[in-house]
Specification:
Strand content: 15-25%
Helix content: 25-40%
Shape: elongated
Strand order of the largest sheet: 7-6-5-4-8
Distance between the termini: 69 Å
Structural class: alpha+beta
Length: 246
């Protein structure tokens, strides 16, 4: 079978499906579909030998072993919106490392797998206790999520910022997203952005250069993580950073 009848498609509505390798019973792909979408991958793999991906290669390996990929429906009778949510949850549960999917699914960063502490911080983060250290709060340009690696978070926090000499009075830099502290760094040194750095071309012809810091995660300030600093920013305040005690 390589297609559903119109009647079956109508009854299934939107669905989430699994592609399974019959040789070991392993799920190697999770997808969301309508109509006969679930069968399209095998048809593409066998009908277009020039198309290349881990998923298509796996399907070809199965057929080379004289077997057929097993198609299963995980959930059906869904709206498109619900199907995207189920797809994302299934991918996160199985893990991208175990699948041939290239992306994690829709809305996974906003409503994906996370600890209960992180979930609380998204909607009801406790207000930060009084900050006594000399700190710069950086409202990072990238949307933070539990999936963001430590390297990605540091890279988007450490630069690049239009700062004046006052920066030298800070001992720490805090990564802030949606009003919540996500990480704290000790500032070891500062340098101006230069050729080869991220978006360095934006500085060409400008008199004010942007700065970035080098530093390490400040584990001694872990009590600040996942606490809110929304009250420290005035409504409508546009600057992406704020000095505290410096």
């Amino acid at each position: 079978m390589n297609a559903f009848t119109p009647y079956v498609s109508e009854r299934l509505k939107a669905y989430v499906y699994l592609l399974i390798d019959p040789r070991d019973g392993e799920v190697f792909y999770v997808g969301k579909g309508n109509g006969s979408r679930v069968f399209a991958h095998a048809l593409n793999a066998l009908g277009n030998e020039e198309a290349a991906s881990d998923k298509l290669d796996r399907i070809r390996e199965v057929h080379a072993a004289s077997q057929d990929v097993e198609h299963q429906l995980l959930r059906f009778g869904l709206t498109d919106r619900t199907a995207f949510e189920v797809e994302a949850a299934a991918i996160q549960l199985l893990g991208l490392d175990e699948l041939t999917n290239k992306v994690e699914g829709h809305h996974v960063w906003l409503r994906g797998r996370m600890t209960t502490d992180v979930a609380i911080s998204l909607f009801d983060a406790p207000q930060v206790p009084g900050i006594k250290e000399r700190v710069i709060l950086f409202r990072i340009p990238r949307l933070w999520s539990p999936e963001m690696s430590a390297e990605e978070l540091y890279e988007t926090t450490q630069g690049w910022w239009t700062l004046g000499p006052r920066r030298n009075g800070a001992d720490y830099a805090f990564a802030v997203n949606r009003g919540v502290i996500r990480e704290m760094y000790r500032i070891d040194s500062w340098r101006q952005r230069q050729a080869g750095d991220r978006d360095w071309e934006q500085d060409i012809g400008k008199s004010r250069k942007r700065w970035g810091f080098s530093g390490q995660v400040a584990d001694e300030l872990a009590h600040y993580r996942n606490t809110s600093v929304r009250h420290l920013f005035k409504q409508g305040e546009s600057l992406p950073f704020k000095y505290v005690n410096c």
